[in-house]
Amino acid sequence: MAFQSKKFPSKANTNTFAAKYRAMMKKHPFLLFGLPFMSVVVAGSFVLTPAAAIRYEKYDRKVRQVSREEELGLGQRKRRVDIREEYYRLAAKDIDNWEQKRVERLKGESDGLL
User: Fold this and answer.
1) pLDDT tens, 70-104?
2) Which of 35, 32, 16, 36 is nearest to 24 (CA)?
3) Where are the alpha helices (H) located in 64-103, listed in sequence order?
4) What dihedral angle (degrees, nearest 10) is formed by the CA atoms of 81, 83, 84, 87?
5) pLDDT digits (tens, 9 = 90+) for 11-60
6) SS3 (DSSP) at 21
7) How far is the C-alpha of 24 from the C-alpha of 13, rounded, in Å?
8) Is the CA virtual torsion 55, 57, 58, 62 positive or negative?
9) How is residue 112 annotated by DSSP?
10) What distance in Å separates the CA atoms of residue 61 and residue 93, rounded to the nearest whole number?
11) For this UniProt entry, which residues form the secretion signal (predicted)?
């Protein structure tokens, strides 16, 4: 006895929307699958472009909050650095005499001792 390669559609399944869609999909695959897919991609591009712009504008506002007067005053309190002066200042420190100190742990935190 030979079996058919295609199943015989039952009467209940032929009138559903899914069965009609599958039958139409075989005839017009681009119209029912490709076109909606491509339109979602293009529409998503148009929707996400303003959202990305809002994100970058918010970041720019956060970065530019320093006023002109504050900007002019930022460099005044800096001390001038001379590489030789820094070398001699660090060389004058006694780095051989030091003592290890343990940091106090929070309550319930392990101190790392076995």
Assistant:
1) 666 666 667 788 999 999 988 888 888 888 888 88
2) 32
3) 68-73, 83-91
4) 100
5) 666 778 888 888 888 899 899 899 999 999 999 999 999 988 898 888 88
6) helix
7) 15
8) positive
9) S
10) 45
11) none
Q: Which residue has the tokens 């002066």?
A: 85
Phi-psi region of 79 (alpha: psi -120 to 50; beta: other; left: phi over 0): beta
Report the alpha-carbon angle 68-73-76, nearest 5: 150
Specify whether the CB–CB gap between 89 and 79 falls below 8 A. no
Instruction: Give the span between the Cα atoms of 27 and 37, in whole angstroms.
Output: 17
Number of continuous H segments (helices) and E segments (strands) in the chain: 6, 0
Place of tokens 């820094």: 86
- In the structure encoding, which two tokens stand for residue 61, read together? 């506002």
**Size of the chain in residues:** 114
Do residues 81 and 88 lie in contact, with contact meaning Cβ atoms separated by under 8 Å? no
User: Look-up: residue for tokens 């712009």?
Assistant: 53
CB 44 within 8 A of CB 52: no
